[in-house]
């Protein structure tokens, strides 16, 4: 052993062994305490240790912005439950491959474009699509079909009567989607694992889901069902008021 | 020499523990176990409704949520989020609760409707405007701010009712029905609101 090494060895031995062990234990204890105070609140456990603090603030202020009369009659409601992003992956298309092709500037089919758009959204919102981290959100949407009598008011042109024959003819306005509601989940209702997205990321996901579900609900025949229901209801009401022959025009 | 090796082993052991715990603090991303949802619970449903939403209030809700934690003066968590969202409240008549039409004479009917009620309170996601967010030592969860919006909804409902939304909804619904029936040749329409909600459909 060289002189230099021997001197170093001697210096270390100046500090007694028990102090060295105590030092290591103390550092470990502090680190353990730090980790405990950092991690336990995540599981809802607060130890209230001295020198530690944990505060949660949740505040909101409401302000009435607008009030308006409505002239709606809603006759049908479709409720969907979808799993984002998995329900929105077009069949037989890999979103990652589609996105890579989009970035490379390759020509994409409509399904590949949809898949690439979904992949981009997932990246923007911090959802790792296609990885081992199966992040998902179960989204409940309620879509109501009805008529907006503000846009198409009931007037003398839309109703023609023949009291002598007890017949009435009604021109119905165009049915439309009057409400698109994404259910506001709360921790007491939502039983699935929560997702880590901020408000802006959630706005983007909601917008994407609304576009897709609107197309789906129209394909599922919401407008036809809306019209069918209003015909049934109006027929009953008009029969009650003495009309025998009721017809509907488009 | 043996004793030295033993203590080196202890030191290495503690170093491993502190390193692994330290790494877990740095990553700071504990996630709930990934459970794929039961497919049978995910469904679609169609139902016939008969609602006459006749008045709407739109509220702007400004939401702030924050969580801060420190130990020995060292901040290890600081998450903050401030955003605004519109919450729509609709009041009107749910005709499924039962309504009746009674013909008094030619051109005169009495209509009994269920009382006006709150039909919808919903946060409009398209109106979200995020002012800022800060995520240090943790992430912001969606349900954290939706829980706060849910609490706002209770205040919104109380505020709208105190401002007379139900009365306005009732008046407007009566006006819509009266003007529509007048087009069908019924010149006199008496509308009464009832609290009887025992039956569905037309009575």
The total of helices of chain A stands at: 6
- pLDDT averaged over residues of chain B: 80
Rounded to the nearest angstrom, the radius of gyration of chain A is 33 Å
Sheet with the most strands, sense and barrel status of chain A = 3 strands, antiparallel
**Would you tell me the structural class of the helices and strands of chain B?**
alpha+beta
Report the oligomer: heterodimer
Number of domains of chain A: 3
N- to C-terminal distance of chain B: 98 Å
Helical amount among residues of chain B, as a percent range? 25-40%
What report would you give on this structure?
The complex is a heterodimer of chains A (250) and B (203). Chain A has helices at residues 3-14, 17-39, 95-104, 110-124, 199-219, 222-240; strands spanning 52-69, 72-84, 137-148, 159-162, 167-171, 176-182, 245-249. Chain A is α+β, with helices and mostly antiparallel strands and 250 residues long. Chain A has 3 domains: 6-43; 60-83 and 138-250, no CATH class; 86-135, no CATH class. In chain A, the strands form 2 sheets. In chain A, strands 2-3-6 form a 3-stranded antiparallel beta sheet, with helices on one face. Chain A has a 3-stranded mixed beta sheet with strand order 4-5-7, with helices on one face. The longest helix of chain A is centred in the N-terminal third of the chain and has 23 residues, at 17-39. Chain A is elongated, with a radius of gyration of 33 Å. With 203 residues, chain B is α+β, with helices and mostly antiparallel strands. Among the domains of chain B are: 1-29; 48-58 and 87-126 and 142-194, no CATH class. Chain B has helices at residues 2-27, 142-162, 165-183, and strands at 44-71, 74-94, 100-105, 108-114, 117-136, 188-194. Chain B has a 3-stranded antiparallel beta sheet with strand order 1-2-5. In chain B, a hairpin with a 2-residue loop joins strand 3 (100-105) and strand 4 (108-114). Chain B is elongated. The N and C termini of chain B lie far apart (98 Å). At the A-B interface, helix 2, strand 1, strand 2, strand 3 and strand 6 of A face helix 1, strand 1, strand 2, strand 5 and helix 2 of B. Strand 2 (72-84) of chain A pairs antiparallel with strand 1 (44-71) of chain B, so a sheet runs across the interface.
């Amino acid at each position: 052993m060289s002189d230099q090494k021997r001197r170093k060895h001697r210096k270390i031995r100046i500090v007694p062994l028990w102090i060295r062990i105590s030092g290591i234990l103390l550092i470990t204890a502090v680190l353990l305490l730090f980790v405990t105070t950092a991690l336990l609140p995540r599981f809802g456990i607060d130890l209230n240790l001295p020198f530690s603090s944990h505060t949660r603030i949740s505040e909101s202020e409401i302000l009435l912005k607008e009030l308006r009369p409505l002239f709606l009659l809603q006759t049908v409601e479709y409720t969907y439950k979808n799993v984002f992003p998995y329900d929105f992956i077009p069949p037989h298309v890999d979103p990652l491959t589609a996105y890579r092709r989009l970035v490379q500037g390759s020509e994409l089919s409509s399904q590949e474009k949809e898949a690439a758009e979904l992949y981009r959204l997932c990246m923007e919102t911090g959802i790792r699509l296609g990885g081992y981290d199966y992040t998902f959100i179960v989204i409940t949407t309620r879509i109501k079909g009805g008529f907006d009598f503000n846009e198409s008011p009931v007037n003398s042109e839309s109703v023609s009567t023949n009291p002598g024959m007890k017949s009435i003819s009604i021109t119905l306005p165009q049915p439309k989607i009057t409400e698109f509601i994404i259910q506001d989940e709360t921790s007491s209702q939502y039983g699935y694992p929560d997702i880590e997205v901020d408000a802006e990321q959630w706005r983007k996901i909601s917008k994407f889901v609304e576009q897709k579900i609107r197309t789906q609900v129209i394909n599922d025949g919401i407008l036809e069902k809306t019209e069918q229901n209003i015909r049934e209801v109006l027929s009953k009401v008009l029969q009650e008021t003495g009309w025998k022959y009721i017809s509907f025009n488009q | 020499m043996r004793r030295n090796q033993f203590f080196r082993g202890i030191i290495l052991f503690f170093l491993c523990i502190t390193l692994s715990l330290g790494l877990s603090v740095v990553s700071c991303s504990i996630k709930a176990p990934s459970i794929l949802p039961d497919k049978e619970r995910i469904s679609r449903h169609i139902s016939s409704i008969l609602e006459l939403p006749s008045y709407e209030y739109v509220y702007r809700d400004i939401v702030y949520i924050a969580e801060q934690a420190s130990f020995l003066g060292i901040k290890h968590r600081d998450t903050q989020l401030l955003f605004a969202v519109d919450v729509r409240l609709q009041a009107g008549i749910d005709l499924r609760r039962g309504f009746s039409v009674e013909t008094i004479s030619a051109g005169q009917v009495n209509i009994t409707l269920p009382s006006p009620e709150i039909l919808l309170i919903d946060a409009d996601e398209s109106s979200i405007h995020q002012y800022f967010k800060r995520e240090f030592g943790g992430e912001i969860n969606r349900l954290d701010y939706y829980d706060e919006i849910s609490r706002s909804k209770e205040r919104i409902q109380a505020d709208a009712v105190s401002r007379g939304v139900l009365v306005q909804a009732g008046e407007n619904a009566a006006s819509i029905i009266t003007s529509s029936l007048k087009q069908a040749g019924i010149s006199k329409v008496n509308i009464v609101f009832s609290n009887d909600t025992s039956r569905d459909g037309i009575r």
